[in-house]
Write a structure and sequence with these properties.
- By secondary structure, the protein is α+β, with helices and mostly antiparallel strands.
- Helices cover 25% and strands 15% of the residues.
- It has three helices and four strands.
- The strands form two sheets. The protein has a two-stranded parallel sheet with strand order 1-2. A two-stranded antiparallel ribbon has the order 3-4.
- A hairpin with a 2-residue loop joins strand 3 and strand 4.
């Protein structure tokens, strides 16, 4: 592994003590990506939602802009 890409709110370990700052202090090259939100709201877009959208054939640009279905949306006979 040469680098790790995580969300800016990424946490790991006991009580979420491991974060971007701690990983960098251990010498890990970390790229923190800002949290994405659905258009015109403050609802976060999870990586799971983006992966489901892409798997369903929804372009990644729509998924990352919050224009793809969110968890719980009912579209085209599918529940996300």
């Amino acid at each position: 592994m040469t680098a790790l890409c995580v969300g800016s709110e990424f946490r790991l370990g006991r009580s979420g003590e491991g974060d971007v700052r701690r990983l960098r202090a251990l010498g890990v090259e970390v790229h923190a990506v800002d949290v994405l939100h659905r258009a015109r709201t403050r609802v976060k877009i999870s990586s799971s939602t983006i992966r489901r959208a892409i798997a369903a054939g929804i372009p990644a640009t729509l998924a990352t802009e919050g224009l793809a279905p969110a968890f719980g949306d009912h579209i085209g006979g599918m529940t996300w």
